[in-house]
C-alpha cells in the first residue's frame, strides 16, 4: 500500500515572522501553470454568469460609520453558492453598467472552495493542511472563499479591517489564505499590513445579520465576546485607542506595503489590521482568498455567514488527494 507523507508546513523562521508580524508572504506557493488555470477558470466564470435575474448587488464595504455594507439576500445566501458582486464604480447614477460585465465584477464568492474543482484542489490541499498544523489548528474549517478582481480603473479600496470582525469565533481564530493570481503592486492595489497589530488590536466589532425575514440586512455590533485568540491576549487587554467603523482600529498605524508576484500566498492573522487601496491603473489585480477558523470554537447564528447544510469544509478530513 502506498504511504503518503505530508508536505512540510511552515519553517520555524516563517512561523516566527507570522507570529511577530501577523502576516507572512510565501512566494511561489502556486506554480505559474496553476495560476494560469485558475485565471482561465475565473475568466470563464466572468464570461458565463448571467445578468438576467441578477439583483446587481454591489460589493460595498460601507461608509465611515460602518453603515451601507453589502447585506441583501443575494449576499447573505451566498455561503453555499458561487455569486457575483459588482464594483461600485461599474455603474452610472441610473444603475446602468458602464463596463462590460466581465470588467464590472468586484468579487465572486463564497463557496468556490467546495463547488469549483480547480479552487477546491488548491484550498483543501495537503499543503494547506500542513500549514494549518504549523499554525496550531486542531480542526481547521474553510468557511468562505472568493476571487477578488480589483478591476482596472474602478477597483474599489478595502478599508482597514480585521478578518475576525467578519468571521467571528469565540475566541477569535480566523486566518486568511490569500493567493495572488496576478502581480499585486502599489499601482493596482496590493495589500498593506499594520505589522504586529494582531498583538495589540482587539476584535471590538462584529459584522452580523440584522433585521427579520424579508428585511434582512447586516451591520456592526460591539463584540461582547473574547477579543484575542486563546493564549494571545496582550498583557493589558484592550488598552489601545481608537473608535473603529468597519471593525478596524482608529489609532494611527503604519502600513507596510505587500507587493507580491502571481503565485504568492499571503497568510493573514484574523486580528491583523490590513487594507488595500483603489485600483485606478489599467491592470487588474485578481486574487483568490479563503478563510479558516478553528472548528471547535463557538460560531454563532449572528454571524453574517452561516454554515452550509454539510457544515464548513474540514481541512484535515476533506484534504484532496493530489
Ligand atoms: O484583496 C484585497 O484587496 C482585500 C482582501 C482582504 O482584506 C481580505 O480578504 O481580508
UniProtKB/TrEMBL annotation:
<keyword id="KW-0560">Oxidoreductase</keyword>
<comment type="similarity">
    <text>Belongs to the PhyH family.</text>
</comment>
<keyword id="KW-0408">Iron</keyword>
<dbReference type="Pfam" id="PF05721">
    <property type="entry name" value="PhyH"/>
</dbReference>
<keyword id="KW-0479">Metal-binding</keyword>
<dbReference type="GO" id="GO:0051213">
    <property type="term" value="F:dioxygenase activity"/>
</dbReference>
<feature type="compositionally biased region" description="Polar residues">
    <location>
        <begin position="234"/>
        <end position="244"/>
    </location>
</feature>
<dbReference type="InterPro" id="IPR008775">
    <property type="entry name" value="Phytyl_CoA_dOase-like"/>
</dbReference>
<feature type="region of interest" description="Disordered">
    <location>
        <begin position="214"/>
        <end position="255"/>
    </location>
</feature>
<dbReference type="GO" id="GO:0046872">
    <property type="term" value="F:metal ion binding"/>
</dbReference>
<protein>
    <submittedName>
        <fullName>Phytanoyl-CoA dioxygenase family protein</fullName>
    </submittedName>
</protein>
<keyword id="KW-0223">Dioxygenase</keyword>
Amino acid at each position: 500500500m502506498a504511504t503518503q507523507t505530508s508536505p512540510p508546513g511552515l519553517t520555524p523562521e516563517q512561523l516566527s515572522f507570522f507570529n511577530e508580524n501577523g502576516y507572512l508572504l510565501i512566494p511561489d506557493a502556486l506554480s505559474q501553470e496553476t495560476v494560469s488555470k485558475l485565471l482561465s477558470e475565473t475568466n470563464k466564470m466572468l464570461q458565463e454568469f448571467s445578468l438576467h435575474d441578477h439583483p446587481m448587488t454591489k460589493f460595498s464595504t460601507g461608509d465611515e460609520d460602518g453603515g451601507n455594507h453589502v447585506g441583501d439576500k443575494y449576499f447573505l445566501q451566498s455561503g453555499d453558492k458561487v455569486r457575483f458582486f459588482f464594483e461600485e464604480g461599474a455603474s452610472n447614477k441610473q444603475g446602468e453598467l458602464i463596463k462590460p460585465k466581465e470588467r464590472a465584477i468586484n468579487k465572486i464568492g463564497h463557496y468556490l472552495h467546495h463547488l469549483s474543482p480547480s479552487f477546491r484542489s488548491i484550498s483543501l490541499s495537503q499543503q494547506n493542511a500542513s500549514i494549518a498544523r504549523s499554525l496550531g489548528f486542531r480542526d481547521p474549517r474553510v468557511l468562505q472563499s472568493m476571487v477578488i478582481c480589483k478591476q482596472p480603473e474602478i477597483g474599489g479600496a478595502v478599508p482597514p479591517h480585521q478578518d475576525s470582525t467578519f468571521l467571528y469565533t469565540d475566541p477569535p481564530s480566523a486566518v486568511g489564505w490569500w493567493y495572488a493570481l496576478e502581480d499585486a503592486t502599489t499601482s493596482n492595489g496590493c495589500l498593506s499590513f499594520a505589522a504586529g497589530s494582531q498583538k495589540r488590536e482587539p476584535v471590538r466589532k462584529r459584522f452580523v445579520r440584522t433585521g427579520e425575514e424579508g428585511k434582512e440586512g447586516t451591520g456592526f455590533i460591539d463584540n461582547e465576546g473574547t477579543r484575542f485568540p486563546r493564549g494571545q491576549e496582550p498583557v493589558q487587554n484592550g488598552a489601545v485607542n481608537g473608535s473603529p467603523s468597519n471593525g478596524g482600529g482608529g489609532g494611527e498605524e503604519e502600513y507596510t506595503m505587500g507587493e507580491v508576484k502571481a503565485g504568492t500566498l499571503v497568510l493573514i492573522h484574523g486580528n491583523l489590521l490590513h487594507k488595500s487601496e483603489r485600483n485606478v491603473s489599467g491592470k487588474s489585480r485578481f486574487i483568490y482568498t479563503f478563510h479558516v477558523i478553528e472548528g471547535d470554537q463557538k460560531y454563532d447564528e449572528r454571524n453574517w455567514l452561516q454554515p452550509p447544510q454539510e457544515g464548513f469544509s474540514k481541512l484535515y478530513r476533506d484534504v484532496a488527494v493530489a
